[in-house]
From TrEMBL:
<feature type="domain" description="MPN">
    <location>
        <begin position="2"/>
        <end position="121"/>
    </location>
</feature>
<keyword id="KW-0378">Hydrolase</keyword>
<keyword id="KW-0479">Metal-binding</keyword>
<dbReference type="InterPro" id="IPR028090">
    <property type="entry name" value="JAB_dom_prok"/>
</dbReference>
<dbReference type="GO" id="GO:0008237">
    <property type="term" value="F:metallopeptidase activity"/>
</dbReference>
<keyword id="KW-0482">Metalloprotease</keyword>
<protein>
    <submittedName>
        <fullName>Mov34/MPN/PAD-1 family protein</fullName>
    </submittedName>
</protein>
<dbReference type="GO" id="GO:0006508">
    <property type="term" value="P:proteolysis"/>
</dbReference>
<keyword id="KW-0645">Protease</keyword>
<dbReference type="InterPro" id="IPR037518">
    <property type="entry name" value="MPN"/>
</dbReference>
<keyword id="KW-0862">Zinc</keyword>
<dbReference type="Pfam" id="PF14464">
    <property type="entry name" value="Prok-JAB"/>
</dbReference>
<dbReference type="GO" id="GO:0046872">
    <property type="term" value="F:metal ion binding"/>
</dbReference>
Length: 121
């Protein structure tokens, strides 16, 4: 099971609130061997109300990047078809945080979009 550091979730919550009503997108950093998310990497992206265009050619891809996070300005943290397509390309752990952006309004998914457990540490 993946774990996420409380301070990383705090940074995600803050970024999601700051970007609202647009979507926030970031990359999760950590050590894949230990399955611990210990860093939020903010990447160049164009934020829209219901979409995020990731400028993936500007992302310095390295082995520290283990997944993604994005916000939904709605109450639903269900991944869209496009979300799942992105998940498949960008690591193995993916978070969606829904409005109102707190430690209860997010869910974690694997690269196929299947809901997965994540522990706050
Ligand atoms: Zn989404």
């Amino acid at each position: 099971m993946y774990k996420i550091k409380r301070e990383v979730l705090g940074a995600i919550i803050e970024a999601s609130k700051n970007t609202y009503p647009h979507e926030f997108f970031g990359v999760l950093g950590g050590s894949p061997g230990e399955k611990i998310v210990d860093e939020l990497i903010v990447v160049p992206a164009t934020y829209g109300r219901n979409f995020t265009l990731i400028k993936s050619h500007l992302i310095p891809f390295d082995s520290k990047m283990i997944g993604t996070v994005h916000s939904h300005p709605s109450y639903s943290s269900r991944p869209s078809k496009q979300d799942i397509a992105t998940f498949g390309k960008m690591g193995s752990i993916h978070l969606i945080i829904a409005y109102p952006f707190n430690s209860e309004s997010f869910n974690a998914f694997d690269s196929k979009g299947i809901k997965t457990a994540i522990e706050l540490i």
